[in-house]
Amino acid sequence: MLDSNQKLKKMNFKNISRKVAAVLAISSITLSSCVNDLDTEPIDPNATTANKVFADPANYINALAKLYAGFTLSGQQGPTGNPDIKFLDEGHGQYLRGYYVLQELPTDEAINGWNDGNLPRISQMTWQANNEFIRAFYYRAIYQVSLANEFLRNVPADGEVNGIQFSTMRAEARFIRAFAYWHALDLFGNGVPFVTEGDPVGAFLPNPAGLPGWGSDRRELFDFIVSEVKEIETMLPEPRTGELGRADKGAAYMLLSKLYLNAETYTGTAMWSEAEAELNKLVASGAYTLNPSYKGMFSADNHTSTETIFSFNFNALNTQTFGGMTYMIHAAVGGSMSAADFGINSGWGGNRALRELNAKFVDGADLRGPGELLTVGDDGGDIDDQFKFTQGYFVRKFTNNNADGTAISNPDPNGDHVDTDFPTFRYSDAVLMLAEAELKGSGSVSGGTLALINQIRTRAGVGTVTPTEVNSGLWILDERARELYWECHRRTDLIRWGQYTSGANWQYKGGTVNGTSVADYHRLMPIPSSDLNANPNLKQNEGY
């Protein structure tokens, strides 16, 4: 295994070939209506086409780096100037930022205070099919799929270059495609445009995976993703034996587990035992352990953690974007908070937590919550003005300083961009998922899994829990909030536990100060109107 301090230097993910990046860039406005039109020779004889890039196997690794960079970068030339998603401010089009907006802002964990276009409607759960922020992530996810397809279309199954097997690179590209398709399925349902490397190159109107929405008669996309990940699982490196940020068997175990854990939501058929089996493989690998410090999981030196299973990796100098972790850290700082305490030049005063999240922390000693990483705003914890950042709870979870509070060694001279990685999958999440699969599959959490949960609790500085507690009510869902808030799990969790559209309310849900239930169709986001207009093969989700 590579020294984690190398942080992807060998693969050079942080310095992606612009030539390859430009070739793999696809027009974002008509992604599903006219995809993969990369076979046309450019008018400029100095420009490079895909057939020229992929003619040299030495370029394959750079092309693969572009696929991973799709999770971290927003465009082709640094933070601004040549965006992948062109109709919105470039930072809003970045993958992690868009995913956070849709997974956290319409939940009991977060609210945003910016009056930017239709952004307030996300927190209010009053969005419509023309919402530009929903549209941005929809295109970003499909863009990732398109990049992966182009890679798979051009890289042969057999061979190697510089000791790297083509088959391994192809397996990673398939993982990236499956990962993006999972997000599309979770947010938009089965009716998103479905394209693989087997589809024709050039302008065409792709069909959806199947009927729109979720259900037993609309599971084509779910079945495709599961079959892909099951097949590539054996082709990927063993857990934590490869380079940081690249997919391995551990990442595949987690992706399959996420699909199985949510199978009842997606298909109407529960797959608890399948989720349990994948999670047991991950735990039994022995490759992952809890980070000694909870706070250290979200600091600039978190790339050293053995808790991380899969991450989006950021570097203050080489992956500059106004999305990603730059957004996650800056947007959470404002009011009386000191930007220097977070290793940045200034706060943007946007995202804060709701009183409903704060109330989950029943133990005042919890190092994850009140008084530590969750503190009451300057103007109190209740919010009567969505656009007043100083109302609510400040979240101090993510920082651009090291875990011990020291500054990073090679910061952005301007103080804008950050070095902190985003732990997309981590071990404590896997433990809590295993507990849920056991509880819902057999009616109780096993003693071994309970012991792992109590290790998480001990790290947090709170008391251990009993079998009665962990097996009752919504305890696991609440513990997931305490452990994983702002890590882009909450919307999916609330839906799976039947607490999203009804069952639980929070401030500004439904557009009211104290919150109200909303129609069940809000469990899915709408297919953007622009894509429906461009591609008559697509159908809108129910309710929009």
Automatic annotation (TrEMBL):
Domain SusD-like N-terminal: 124-261
Swiss-Prot/TrEMBL keywords: Cell outer membrane, Membrane, Signal
UniProt xrefs under Gene3D superfamilies: 1.25.40.390, SusD-like (1.10.3780.10), Tetratricopeptide repeat domain (1.25.40.10)
InterPro entries per record: SusD-like_N, SusD_RagB_dom, TPR-like_helical_dom_sf
Pfam families given in the database record: SusD-like_3, SusD_RagB
Gene Ontology CC terms: cell outer membrane
Residue ranges constituting the RagB/SusD domain according to the UniProt record: 378-544
Entry-linked SUPFAM superfamilies: TPR-like
Similarity remark: Belongs to the SusD family.
Descriptive protein name: RagB/SusD family nutrient uptake outer membrane protein
Lineage: Bacteria, Pseudomonadati, Bacteroidota, Cytophagia, Cytophagales
